[in-house]
Design goal:
Helix content: 10-25%
Distance between the termini: 67 Å
Strand order of the largest sheet: 2-1-3-4-5
Radius of gyration: 21 Å
Number of strands: 15
Number of helices: 6
Structural class: alpha+beta
Shape: elongated
Largest sheet: 5 strands, mixed
C-alpha cells in the first residue's frame, strides 16, 4: 500500500529537493495528488532547467491534471515578449495543475509577486509553506543569504515595490556592528530612487565615481536623512554614534528593482 503523505510532509520533501540544488537560487519541487508523490525536481538536476520544469516533464498530462505542486521558491514569469521558452508559471497553468504551494516569494524585483498574481488570475489556487519552514528556506535559497541583511562589502539586486525595503548592513561575519537604511519611492520613469536613514546620516559623495575615489567619507558636507539617487551616484550612510560607515553606489535601476553596491569603512 502506497504511503499517504500530509501537506506538511510534501513541504519538507520539497525542501529536501531544494537542498540537492547545485545552482543558486536553490529550488526544490514536489508534485502530488491524493496524498501521493508523483514527481520531484530540483534546480541543477538538468543544467539550465528550472526545478518546476524538471518535475513536470516527468509526468503525463493526465497525471498532472488536478495535482498540487509544492515549490520552495515562487515560479518564474515571462520577462521578454520574445522569450524562447514558456515560463514556469505558464507551464503550470497549461498543465492543469490546480494548486501551487509556495515556500518564499522571489525577492528579484522582476519576479516578486508576479508569479503569485498570475497563478491567481488563471484560477490556480495558491497557498504558502508554514512560517517555520519559510524561514528555513530563506536562509539558504539565495547565494547571498537573507535578503534584508548585508555582510559586506558586496553587490545585490533587490525589489523596491510599494513601501520599499529596509536593510541591515553588518560590518563583517565576526564584527556584529550594524547600520540600517532603506530604499523607497522607486521612480523608474525619472530614473531615481530614495535611500533613507536616520536624520543626518546620509551624505552625497558629489563628484566621486567609485569607492576608491573617497579617501575620507566624512569630508562630504550637508548631511540629511535621505538622498534621491540616480544611476552612478554614491552616498555615505553614517548614523550618529556609529563607529563605521557604509558607502552605497546605485549601479542600475529598473521598473521594480535596483542593483547597488556597498562597502564598509571604519571611521
Amino acid at each position: 500500500m502506497e504511503k499517504k503523505y500530509s501537506r506538511k510532509d510534501f513541504m519538507k520533501i520539497a525542501i529536501e529537493e531544494h537542498l540537492k540544488s547545485i545552482e543558486f537560487p536553490r529550488v526544490g519541487v514536489v508534485i502530488a495528488k491524493n496524498g501521493e508523490i508523483l514527481a520531484t525536481g530540483f534546480r541543477g538536476e538538468n543544467k539550465g532547467i528550472h526545478a518546476e520544469r524538471n518535475a513536470i516533464k516527468k509526468l503525463s498530462s493526465q497525471q498532472l491534471c488536478q495535482s498540487t505542486l509544492y515549490t520552495t521558491l515562487e515560479p518564474c514569469v515571462t520577462l521578454y515578449h520574445d522569450q524562447s521558452i514558456e515560463s514556469c508559471v505558464d507551464l503550470i497553468i497549461n498543465s492543469k495543475i490546480t494548486e501551487v504551494v509556495i515556500g518564499v516569494l522571489d525577492p528579484n524585483g522582476t519576479v516578486y509577486s508576479q508569479g503569485y498574481r498570475r497563478l491567481l488570475e488563471n484560477k490556480v489556487g495558491v497557498s504558502f509553506f508554514n512560517r517555520k519552514l519559510r524561514d528555513a528556506i530563506e536562509e539558504d535559497t539565495f547565494e547571498y543569504g537573507v535578503i534584508d541583511t548585508l555582510i559586506g562589502p558586496g553587490k545585490r539586486r533587490i525589489p523596491v515595490v510599494n513601501s520599499g525595503i529596509s536593510l541591515t548592513v553588518q560590518f563583517s561575519e565576526l564584527d556584529k556592528r550594524i547600520i540600517n537604511f532603506r530604499w523607497n519611492t522607486l521612480q523608474m520613469n525619472h530614473g531615481c530612487v530614495d535611500l533613507l536613514s536616520d536624520n543626518g546620516a546620509v551624505r552625497v559623495a558629489s563628484g566621486a565615481r567609485c569607492f576608491s575615489d573617497i579617501t575620507d567619507p566624512m569630508v562630504f558636507r550637508f548631511p540629511s536623512h535621505y538622498a534621491r539617487m540616480e544611476k552612478g551616484l554614491i552616498v555615505i550612510v553614517k548614523p550618529e554614534r556609529s563607529t563605521f560607515c557604509v558607502l552605497v553606489k546605485l549601479l542600475n535601476i529598473c521598473q521594480n528593482d535596483i542593483l547597488f553596491q556597498w562597502e564598509v569603512r571604519n571611521i
